[in-house]
Amino acid sequence: MADVMSFIVLSAAVFCGAFVSGLAGFAFSAIAGAILLHAMPPTEAVPLMMACSVGVQAANLWALRHNIQWKQSLSLIVGGLLGVPLALWLLHNIDSRTFREGFGIMVALYAGYMLFRPAIGYGRLPEGRNALVGFGGGLIGGLTAMPTIWCDIHGVPKQQQRGLVQPFIAAMQISALVMMLLHRDLSMKVAYDVVLGAPALLAGSWLGIFAFRNIDEANFRRVILGLLLVSGLLLVV
Question: Is the dihedral of CA 6, 8, 11, 12 positive or negative?
Answer without folding.
Answer: negative
